[in-house]
Amino acid sequence: MNYRHIYHAGNFADVFKHTLLIQLIYALQRKPKGCCYIDLHAGIGAYNLQTQEAQLTKEYQQGIAKLWNAPNLSEPLREYVQQQLLFNQQRGNTNGLSWYAGSPCLMEQLLRPQDRMLLSELHIEDVLSLHGALSAHQQIQIYHEDAYKVLKSAVPPVEKRGLVLIDPAFEARDEFQQVLTALQDAYSRWQTGTYVIWYPIKSTSLVKSFHQKVERLGIRKIICAELCVYPDDVQTRFNGSGLLIVNPPFQFLDNIRTWLPQLWELLSVEGTGRYNAKWLVPE
Ligand SMILES: C[S@@+](CC[C@H](N)C(=O)[O-])C[C@H]1O[C@@H](n2cnc3c(N)ncnc32)[C@H](O)[C@@H]1O
């Protein structure tokens, strides 16, 4: 397991995933009843963009930095930038972009007193960093454990409302299959939960085969949203990423369509790549 998210924090895929995640959380929080957020591949939560690792790749410059001072952002993109600004301000950084909030820290900022968060991470150093990055400890449980093992015991949560984020590093050759197995198993025990699955787009044939397998799971109501900033099918490169949303909130596809075109315009490299948001499996 070599993957370290510090090299990639704030890149185009993070911007896409975290904007969507914030919108999902807002939608879930429309009801006062508490929610449970289960983030299975948590990372370290707080990413210092000034570190040697982040500066080596500077991926955030092709991601969040392109939105930071952009005018006329659509509401969801503005909300995403505001959450990241707030995260920077809490670390004494009033205006510039020095820190990046990963999914656990973003979710912590949005947590209401009645909500709960459950995190798992396999790297022990990352688990220790996570403990340091988070403060609402009474509402948060952190497991140094395999994501898919944690999922088995975590669903259904007592709240019966909430979302599961499956955001692996895709280092394992069979990661797509592991994701499918985990989703099928969790869904069989919790059919009303919202599940978000992140995947990389390097090869269109691989993605097509993954989608076909998802369609065959017998699960209904799945949105597929994709954002590529380079042309598809340059297999040596990470061209884009996709998100599957199982059991999205009401009208969530319309929500995605209000900001995804603008996000592509901002992040696309020389106008290449593409975006789309559609039902992979309708209601
Ligand atoms: C893409 S990063 C997560 C980013 C994070 N979700 C965010 O959005 O800020 C993937 C993380 O999963 C961790 N990881 C990889 N395999 C895992 C497993 N089987 N169980 C738990 N964590 C795992 C890696 O150490 C890495 O920190």
Task: Tell me, rounded to a whole number, the average pLDDT.
Answer: 96
Task: Give me the Rg, rounded.
Answer: 18 Å
CATH topology: Rossmann fold
The tally of domains stands at: 1
Number of DSSP helices? Answer: 10
**CATH homologous superfamily classification:** Vaccinia Virus protein VP39
Q: Ligands bound here? A: S-adenosylmethionine
**How are the strands of the largest sheet arranged?**
5-4-1-6-7-9-8-10
How much helix is in the residues?
25-40%
Largest sheet: 8 strands, mixed
User: In angstroms, what separates the terminal alpha carbons?
Assistant: 37 Å
Give the helices and strands as they follow along the chain: HEEHHHEHEHEHEHEHEEHE
Dominant shape? globular
**Could you list the spans in which at least 5 consecutive residues all have pLDDT below 50?**
none
What structural category do the secondary elements indicate?
alpha/beta
Secondary-structure arrangement, i.e. CATH architecture: 3-Layer(aba) Sandwich
Q: Which percent range describes the beta-strand content?
A: 15-25%
List its salient traits.
283 residues, alpha/beta, Rossmann fold, 8-stranded mixed sheet, two-stranded antiparallel sheet, 10 strands, globular, binds S-adenosylmethionine
Can you give a write-up of this model?
With 283 residues, the protein is of the alpha/beta class. The chain has a single domain, classed as Rossmann fold. It is built from ten helices and ten strands. The chain has an eight-stranded mixed beta sheet with strand order 5-4-1-6-7-9-8-10, with helices on both faces. α8 links the parallel β6 and β7. α1 crosses α4 and α1 packs parallel to α5. It is globular. The protein starts with 11 loop residues before the first helix and ends with a strand. The site of S-adenosylmethionine (SAM) has 20 residues, from loops.
